[in-house]
Design a protein that fits this description.
This protein is α/β, with parallel strands linked by helices. The chain is 39% helix and 26% strand.
Length: 157
Amino acid sequence: MSIEYMSQEGYDKLVAELRHMENVELPQVREAIAEARAQGDLSENFEYHAAKREQGRLLGRIRFKQRVLENARVIDTSLLASDSIQLLSRVEMTNLTNGARMSYTIASPHEANLREGKISIKSPIAQALMNKKAGDVVEVRVPAGLLKLRIESISQS
């Protein structure tokens, strides 16, 4: 796994999710396994097998988040240039095809959340915007076709 750059907010959120899984969810699953085991015959005990599957799924998610955090590097936003688009930049742009204005923050894949206006740095739109400046026009091939976007402004989030 390679280094993952992210915001302090994203890092703190991942740490909180990991702690919740380790300190709340995992003990609950272990308790469910113990209760199911106490019911006797394990070969036909649905609750036992379901709890074991849930434990395996949860342990996999915990290991994944641990690996992400091991390779995470928090970006010092004060060191970022604000004249070109990069990770953690807030970009205001206009779709030149339909005139719609949109605003996105370029985020790490682990922080991406469209409802919050955060798109992954690995997305086609973010890739096309990287290192561009206000006033530039970019063309992006997306599943729906070709987007023509004009960058209106760039700020650091």
